[in-house]
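User: Predict the structure for this protein chain, please.
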Amino acid sequence: MDRRRMAEIAERLREEVARHYERELLETGGLWETGPYAPVGVEEYRQAKVFERVLLDEFAGTRLEDFYELEEVPTEYGPAVAIVDREPYPGLGVKPDRCRQEIERAVRLLWGVGPATEQHLRSSGYRSLRELVHHPRWGPEARRLVEAIDTGRIEELAFQVWRWYTASHPLSMLLLGLINPTQFAFLDIETLGITTEPLILVGIAWPEGRELLVRQLLVRHIPEELPVLMAAGKSIAEVRALVTFNGRAFDLHFLEARRSYYGLEPPPDKPNFDLLFFARRRWREELPNCRLETLERYVLGIERSLDVPSALVPEFYVRYLSEKNIGPLVAIIEHNKQDLVSMALLLSRLWDEWFG
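Assistant: Here is the predicted structure, written as structure tokens:
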């Protein structure tokens, strides 16, 4: 969607939501029930429902094509529909030589080298894997790792780093500096639930210079889920690594479960750099939590003034289907896009802090 047009719509929606919200408070006396197991707080739910009604009014009688660039993605099970957009992206200050040097200094990547052996090797003049390639004991393994570093085989290196260090260690993030930025993608999904319910949106974004190419594979109706899964699998297969936020625990497992439901193979296995792990390592002592919206507010300076809470995405989608009105769906699309943009900004911020 054109950013200026979206900004105008968002400003109009803010005014309408504020007006309707104040009116509702006066009419109801501030009373509202959500039940003991509500996924969000009372005030958040009230505001979301007001937002939903305003969206229905704003987008009544309109189509997705009126606001978004839609692209058909052919699959063997019929076409999937993608929303295509570009967003500004600060990029990573990647210096490949420095990345290689930093990784080479991690001699504990060698099987059997712990802190004591590492100290002994360093005192003997071996300060990097490259300096160990002719060592009588560690040489063969060091040569294999150095070759992997020189050729950018991050799939192999990720296994080593995550085994001997952790998935949240800065050394893990450095692996992204060994490949072209266009060879990794940000991934975020929206679903009708957290277990076996259908998928409704797969957002994928690729860095292209100072822009982020965003493609959101959209399930406009539940029968379109299978083509979306096929198109998403193809996109994942084309990159060498994924960057997610809590994707290790949710997104990739959900994609695998939905593909299994249709009798498909799991999505291609790619190194998954989960920003939640890195964020916890960096900010867990400073912030009340490391939810993406918290990081947006306190680290990135982003305020989502009008946004559907993640827990209410299923409810908004069901309302879109029942009302045949794209308003609630637009909120989901924009929510997902902001997730992708925030992930890209968060990666850039972490990179600058650790390696800038």
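The chain has two domains: 63-92+179-355, 107-164.
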